[in-house]
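Task: sequence in, structure out. Protein: Nucleoside-diphosphate-sugar epimerase.
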Amino acid sequence: MKKVIVSGANGFVGSHTVKYLLDQGVEVVALCHAGHCDHLPQAANLTVVPFDLHDVKQSLADISVSDYDVFYHFAWDGSAGTKRADTKLQLANAQWTVETLIEAKRLGCKKFVGAGSIMEHETMIAAYTNGNRPGLGYIYGAGKTAAHMLCMSKANELGIDLVWGEITNAYGVGELSPRMVNTTLRKCLKGKKPQFTAGTQNYDFIYIDDVARAFYLLGQKGKAFHEYVIGSGQAKPLKEFLLEMKEAVAPDLDFIFGDVPFTGINLPLETFATEQTFLDTGFKAQVSFGQGTQKTYAWLASLEEE
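Result:
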């Protein structure tokens, strides 16, 4: 793998993946919002191009057609916060993903690697379980599911290899979103007792450095029209992860379980299986949850000091 294009290059997953690609000597064309490339390093093999997800074709009009190995698509408007529940936006994200796929083929990319989510599986179960009342978070999951399904058919028509990486729960240094790991660690920093559900639902987490390496390997070795779970390979009930976090960063702080109702879907452990990812790409996570939360906690603490 010598030359790639990366959309959403300044985002949490995108920027870490770009850095890893650069370290491997890959030439990267990084697409990010004009004036928002502060998470990207200076590198001779990096070219930054302004990109507007709302106008994909025009944004990519000036990029020269070339022999690109992979187009990594991380750009997604509303991956955290209240925008996850915006139906119009999440549907638009699916359409923008298809438009990006079409442009990737036009630019000469051999492979299109999409950033999906384990929530795709959760969303399908939530939608097709009679009597279930899915929460607003599944709107984001529906957008990812739609993007995946639409791209499968369109990629087949266009003749471009599609590889879909399904991230379980990425976390780590550089993330500022109000997702669970971040929110819990911030409470620990302030000495506040975090409250959770009973924590019996199955979960998995993966540190951002491992996520970046996984996407590199998907681009290099992932098989066409395959989906790959990007996780630690150690899925288990959420409570076990949280107790591992407590031991790592706040052993004297009480973690309270059972005070928050759980209204989601409990996925079976086999949904998180990473055996196929390992068999096809050789990827195996290297950072344990305890190690990852320690790194993230130290980074958040440094931000507080600043």
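The chain has ten helices and 13 strands.
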